[in-house]
């Protein structure tokens, strides 16, 4: 049976989130959380926060679960959000913390959405640059080959990996030594077979893209005909000229 403190908290939450909250029982509820600020041209991220309150709450953390309602969020991103919420919960033990958790989640979703949009914008600009280079290559009669694309792809992947590594280092700096150790343990790593399969699929997609995008120029269209050359040679000028 829920404590009187928890029942009072649930009543307050229902007043704050009249449409977002669904009370499952006296110890379970669900709240839809969306980012604080919506970004133009990028879909919103909305998650469902499921909360189960143990008997010892608020002296112990509630059980938290996140599921995607709208937007594209990976499993790793979901796990990272739950870890961040747990950290905030630890800082608020002994107090009603659900409102604080939801508010923090909304802030985290705003940061995640901005990061995703920045990455999308960067990729779109890179695609525009490649398309421009391909158009320029057409005028020079230089085809886009599989080898030249692979060189660019390797450079692009390296820059992306370096950016992600830098972001990872910045994130780790904000954590305590204990939190950093726990974070490293919980990171999901792909098996050797998964890496092989993913790289094989990516290579096949690159080859298909190059085959579809290869261009060539018919040099013959720029060659002068023999008749045109003879006509040029036959041009004379009068003395009056």
TrEMBL record:
Gene3D superfamilies: Ubiquitin Conjugating Enzyme. It comes from the Eukaryota. Pfam families: DFRP_C, RWD. SMART domains: RWD (SM00591). SUPFAM superfamilies: UBC-like. Residues 8-112 form the RWD domain. Residues 166-241 are annotated as: Disordered. PROSITE patterns: RWD. Residues 166-185 have a biased composition (Basic and acidic residues). PANTHER family: RWD DOMAIN-CONTAINING PROTEIN. This is RWD-domain-containing protein. It comes from Coprinellus micaceus.
């Amino acid at each position: 049976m829920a404590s009187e403190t928890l029942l009072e908290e649930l009543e307050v939450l229902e007043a704050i989130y009249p449409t977002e909250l669904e009370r499952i029982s006296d110890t379970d509820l669900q709240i839809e959380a969306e980012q604080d600020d919506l970004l133009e041209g990028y879909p919103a991220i909305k998650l469902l926060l499921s909360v189960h309150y143990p008997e010892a709450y608020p002296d112990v953390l509630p059980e938290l679960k996140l599921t995607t309602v709208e937007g594209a969020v990976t499993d790793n991103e979901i796990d990272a959000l739950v870890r961040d919420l747990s950290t905030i919960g630890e800082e608020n033990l002994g107090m009603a913390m659900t409102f604080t958790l939801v508010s923090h989640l909304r802030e985290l979703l705003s940061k995640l959405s901005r990061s995703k949009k920045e990455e999308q914008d960067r990729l779109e600009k890179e695609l525009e640059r490649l398309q421009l280079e391909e158009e320029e290559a057409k005028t020079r009669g230089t085809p886009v080959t599989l080898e030249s694309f692979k060189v660019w792809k390797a450079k692009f992947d390296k820059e992306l990996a370096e950016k992600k590594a830098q972001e990872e280092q910045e994130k780790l700096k904000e954590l305590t030594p204990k939190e950093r150790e726990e974070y490293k343990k919980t990171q999901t790593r792909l098996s050797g077979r998964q890496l092989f399969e993913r790289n094989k699929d990516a290579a096949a997609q690159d080859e298909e893209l190059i085959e579809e995008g290869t261009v060539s120029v018919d040099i013959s269209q720029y060659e002068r005909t023999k008749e045109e050359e003879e006509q040029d040679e036959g041009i004379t000028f009068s003395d009056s000229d």
